[in-house]
Task: structure prediction
Amino acid sequence: MQPYQRIYRVVCQIPPGRVATYGQIAAICGLGTARTVGYAMAALLEDDVPWQRVINAQGRVSARVGGEEDKEQRKYLMDEGVVFDRLGRVDFRIFGWEGPDMDWLERNGCFPAVSPRTRGK
Result:
């Protein structure tokens, strides 16, 4: 499986109302860095991958090319019930995704660099 396809498959496992970090997805996939996941999300052509559920390690929606937060991403997350604090951060203790279980990882050829329950940075 191609690296981006592996990333997309993992991102599709994040349930509505939960978020994961770019680094967490990279660690679960056992490849690259948070930046690799960011590139994969930017290259996404499929409508069925919940890209909005991947945020940065500070709990914020990452800035886009113009340097501003993606308001569409924030709106999608809020529509799913994700709450942002007054500084624009998501509380990972409440909304963080713990990752797929080990059976799913093995079935899908993912060999995480760290526990899938660890949010990578």
Notes: Strands lie at 20-21, 54-55. The mean pLDDT is 87. The CA atoms of residues 4 and 119 lie 19 Å apart. DSSP finds six helices and two strands in the chain.
